Each structure stands twice: as C-alpha cells, then as structure tokens.
C-alpha cells in the first residue's frame, strides 16, 4: 500500500434509504428492486399494470411498495413524487427503467410510433428525473440511474425509434451528471447486453442464426442474468460508487467491445 493512502473497505448498507424503480413489476426492473430490497432499501415499484405490481410486491416482501403510475402522464408525476416523499421519506435513489420497444422496418415506422417511443423512453425520464432532482437538491445528495441499451452502443436493424431513445438517454445521463453532480447528485446509466428472460430465450431459440451471432460476439460466451443488472444498479446507486458519475456501464459480457 502506498504511504499516506488509506485502505478502503466495502461499505455495508446500514443507512435507511428509499428508492423508486419504474417498470419494477417485471424483467430488469424487478431484478433491480430485488437487489435493493434484499439490501435493506425501501423500494417503490411503479408501473401501469396493478396486477403485475401486486405479484411483484408479494415476491419482494415488506420493503417493497407498489404505486400505479403511467410515466407518460406527465401532469401526474409531481403529485406522485410528493406522495412518495410524504409517505415513505426522502427519495435517495431513482431508477428510470420503464420503457417500450418496437421492432419494425425503418420505412414502416409511423410518426406517431416514433413519437410515442420518445415520449415514454425519453420525455418521461426527463420529467420524473426533474421532479425527483428538485427534492434531492434540497438535501444535496442522491443517485439517479438510467437504463440504456446496446442499441445505443452500435447499430441494430429494425429498432430505429428505440435506438434514438436510448442514444438520447446516454446523452441526458452525461448532461445531467455535469449539471447535478456539483450539488451532490450522481447520475449514471447501465447499458444491458443480452440478458436472459423467457422472451429473449424464445426469440433466440427460434432464430438459430441470430443466436449464433449473439454468442459469437459475446466474449464470455453466454447471456447475462437479470441479477447481473440488479447487482450493477445496487453498486452504482450505493456509497461505494460515490466518486462515479456520468458513466454508462455496459453489462454485456463484453458484447459491445467484441469484433
């Protein structure tokens, strides 16, 4: 160890914290909420499907609370943030996970489809982040985590609107970090690679050529698990990442840097 430099130990989660995870009722959002609740973080999962949210809450236990929210109902967001803070305390962590996707030929994507993608995946993230940041700024601390995609790392066919939205998310992450970090709010993003789910497995198993290309381009040779995203979110949102901001972290088994 260099003289004058103190060894740093891994921080255990002891301080009570509250997090919001949009789209937390299933998929990667559920995995993130699971990582949070298992580490003592009170986690509000938000989404449109109440039945899905109730099922998720039952699995996640008493530290999970569900709130029905359509993130594209921008006028409802300030009241949602106020309700969370009044009932569950200061929001320490915001994870902007909710989003939609569409696979369609470029020339067949309509104006409305493109706009709807941006409304859900970009504008909703901006509005919710803005309202939560207002609260965090009064305390001069907080963590905002956005979910990007491999679609923002390299070109993928038939997902033009989704690609545009996730590329915007990465730019917003950096801009937000530069503006908010001097006031104690860290802003980062995760760019998941090919993560296992029933839907992903079905899609790849039905297209052997695509599955072969995916595996050939992934140096680690297999898909990731939702828990890998949960672990990355827990780290980036926690005290051990206190000097990390403006980062887009690929969790992809090396897919984005492979030839």
From TrEMBL:
In its keyword annotation, does this UniProt entry include Oxidoreductase? yes
Keywords from UniProt, A to Z, are:
Oxidoreductase
Q: Known InterPro entries for this protein?
A: NAD(P)-bd_dom_sf, Sc_DH/Rdtase_CS, SDR_fam
Q: Which family does it belong to?
A: Belongs to the short-chain dehydrogenases/reductases (SDR) family.
- Can you name this protein? SDR family oxidoreductase
